[in-house]
């Protein structure tokens, strides 16, 4: 790396997560001289280090463990699995290490200077980086991209305490399976990590403020999803708020109240996972030096990724939109293309969501509730996995695909899947919608047999009432 302090960069990116590292790669591809500043020892941000990747490693391993425990015998494979949690964590940590090293390689390949240390904006065109040990370097740059991500939102009255009251990172490293894990928040993190520990043997109780699981998913899917998780052994306390926590050597006692008000009660567990959302991270960033003020919820507002300060841009979790790695990646490509004078653009209506439970939930576009609220006249096609031959053969018959299309034009407005490999299937819906496709486009496209993707086609056929296999 050339001496970082002795040159003027085209762009300095603060934060080495999916927003930051993808921006750095695209900058390299377009011939912009870029530096990536990261305070962690490894690149990859929340997603690679303590988010998407380690959680998916545990979801995969625990799914196999549960399958070996309860499903294998039924298909004629007799085994007695024994949990080796230390090895499960090691396999996860090894995968994470390989992935974060992969990002270091991509930075070299794209001629990006990686500067390790805490980045602080020090006025227009200047980023000061403080390395571990205190040494400071100032980088001069034409553009600054803020990609500092987010952190877990704490719950007032329920203070984090190592090993007892934990956030998602704590739940990725538990050294033993809790007897009773209480999860606060039936959103993505609560249901994914709750599933991991239930499969590995914990009793899991989920306490949720709202009456619906899944933080914004389609209502019909949410009902089926909660029913499925309950059948697997998770317990739900819906419409309930947590007002306090008392820790002792035996665990944690939570005080609960109905969300609408009413008598308090207590619930005891040995570990409590607080998963009530994430909040933007801007601590110590020096925003005041360029006159940028976060909004009331801490997000940095943007107009086509521009902040209120000239030459200062913002992407990913720290600005508005879904807090997802692939959204941060879309932002990253668009912001660099705009900086390079190209027409960068993101269609936030087409950012898919996936919950990697078993079965998975995936969706893109509008929910039925949103269409109704907007007064849109829509048609609906629905197909159950119980009627899909591949799902039947694999004993994965829970769930359905739902396709929502405009009643007048047939344009697909939303696709909602609860079922096996929903996360893989949703890509086809994203592509259809990105091309402005209709339900008939899907219905008249030949799909391979026997695959779960046929359920998607059959649901699309259902929009015009000609589903053939159910
Ligand atoms: P981050 O990934 O948070 O990266 C920001 C980086 O900036 C961090 O590395 C941080 O150390 C660094 N930083 C912050 N301030 C400074 C500073 N001043 N100087 C230097 N460095 C700084 N999303 C999905 O799409 N799919 C999933 O399956 C998924 N699973 C998840 C599971 C869990 C348990 C969690 C917690 C999150 C998950 N997410 C998932 C969300 C996903 O991780 C985030 O949406 C994504 O990481 C956001 O990317 P980002 O680049 O905006 O921020
Ligand atoms: P979330 O927004 O998905 O869910 C939080 C849940 O907590 C909601 O259901 C909310 O109603 C509930 N809640 C809020 N306050 C509460 C309270 N006081 N008591 C009880 N319940 C309360 O948030 P999360 O699960 O923490 O995830 C954070 C972010 O990380 C999400 O934006 C998500 O997109 C991202 N993430 C994504 C994935 C994925 O893509 N598979 C996985 C994990 C995390």
UniProtKB/TrEMBL annotation:
Q: What class of enzyme is it?
A: oxidoreductase
The record's annotation in InterPro entries points to: Class-I_Pyr_Nuc-Dis_Oxidored, FAD/NAD-bd_sf, FAD/NAD-binding_dom, FAD/NAD-linked_Rdtase_dimer_sf, Lipoamide_DH, Pyr_nuc-diS_OxRdtase, Pyr_nucl-diS_OxRdtase_dimer, Pyr_OxRdtase_I_AS
Documented EC number(s): 1.8.1.4
> PROSITE patterns from the entry?
PYRIDINE_REDOX_1
Q: Where is the Pyridine nucleotide-disulphide oxidoreductase dimerisation domain?
A: 351-460
**Does Transcription appear among the keywords?**
no
Q: Which co-factors does it depend on?
A: FAD
> Its Gene Ontology molecular function terms?
dihydrolipoyl dehydrogenase (NADH) activity
Superkingdom as given in the UniProt entry: Bacteria
What keywords are assigned to this protein?
A: Disulfide bond, FAD, Flavoprotein, NAD, Oxidoreductase, Redox-active center
Show the catalytic activity: N(6)-[(R)-dihydrolipoyl]-L-lysyl-[protein] + NAD(+) = N(6)-[(R)-lipoyl]-L-lysyl-[protein] + NADH + H(+)
| Domain FAD/NAD(P)-binding, first and last residues per copy | 9-332
Q: How is the cofactor bound?
A: Binds 1 FAD per subunit.
| Membership in a protein family | Belongs to the class-I pyridine nucleotide-disulfide oxidoreductase family.
Q: What else is known?
A: The active site is a redox-active disulfide bond.
Mind telling me which NCBIfam families this protein's record contains?
Answer: lipoamide_DH (TIGR01350)
Matches recorded under PANTHER family:
DIHYDROLIPOYL DEHYDROGENASE, MITOCHONDRIAL, DISULFIDE OXIDOREDUCTASE
Protein name per its UniProtKB record: Dihydrolipoyl dehydrogenase
Q: Which organism is it from?
A: Brevundimonas guildfordensis
């Amino acid at each position: 790396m050339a001496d970082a302090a002795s040159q003027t960069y085209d762009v300095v990116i603060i934060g080495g997560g999916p927003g930051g590292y993808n921006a750095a790669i695209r900058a390299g591809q377009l011939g912009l001289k870029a530096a990536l500043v990261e305070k962690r020892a490894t690149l990859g941000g929340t997603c690679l280090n303590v988010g998407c990747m380690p959680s998916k490693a545990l979801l995969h391993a625990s799914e196999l463990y549960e399958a070996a425990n309860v499903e294998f015998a039924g298909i004629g494979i007799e085994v007695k699995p024994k949990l080796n949690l230390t090895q499960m964590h090691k396999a996860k940590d090894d995968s994470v290490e390989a992935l974060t090293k992969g990002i270091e390689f991509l930075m070299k390949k794209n001629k990006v200077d990686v500067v390790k240390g805490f980045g602080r904006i020090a006025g227009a065109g200047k980023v000061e980086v403080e390395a571990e040990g205190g040494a400071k370097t100032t980088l001069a740059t034409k553009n600054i991209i803020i990609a500092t991500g987010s952190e877990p939102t704490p719950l007032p009255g329920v203070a984090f305490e190592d090993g007892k009251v934990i956030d998602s990172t704590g739940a990725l490293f538990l050294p033993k399976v809790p007897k009773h894990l209480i999860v606060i928040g039936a959103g993505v993190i609560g249901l994914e990590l709750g599933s991991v520990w239930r499969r590995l043997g914990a009793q899991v109780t989920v306490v949720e403020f709202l009456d619906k699981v899944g933080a914004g998913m389609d209502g019909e899917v949410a009902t089926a999803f909660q029913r499925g998780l309950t059948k697997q052994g998770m317990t739900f306390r819906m419409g309930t708020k947590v007002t306090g926590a008392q820790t002792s050597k035996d665990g944690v006692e939570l005080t609960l109240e109905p969300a609408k008000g009413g008598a308090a009660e207590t619930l005891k567990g040995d570990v409590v996972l607080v998963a009530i959302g994430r909040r933007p991270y801007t601590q110590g960033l020096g925003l005041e030096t360029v006159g940028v003020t976060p909004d009331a919820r801490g997000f940095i507002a943007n107009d086509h990724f521009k902040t209120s300060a000239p030459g200062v841009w913002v992407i990913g979790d720290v600005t508005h939109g879904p807090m997802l790695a692939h959204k941060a990646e879309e932002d990253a490509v668009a912001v660099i293309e705009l900086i390079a004078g190209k027409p960068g653009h993101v269609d936030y209506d087409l950012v898919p969501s996936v919950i990697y439970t078993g079965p998975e939930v995936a969706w893109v576009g509008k929910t039925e509730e949103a269409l109704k609220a907007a007064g849109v006249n829509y048609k609906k096609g629905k197909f159950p996995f119980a009627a899909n031959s591949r799902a039947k053969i694999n004993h994965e018959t829970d769930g359905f695909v739902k396709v929502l299309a405009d009643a007048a034009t047939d344009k697909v407005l939303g696709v909602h899947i609860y079922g096996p490999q929903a996360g893989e299937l949703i890509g086809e819906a994203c592509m259809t919608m990105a091309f402005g496709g209709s339900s008939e486009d899907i219905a008249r496209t030949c799909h391979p047999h026997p695959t779960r993707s046929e359920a998607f086609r059959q649901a699309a056929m259902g929009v015009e009432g000609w589903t053939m296999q159910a």
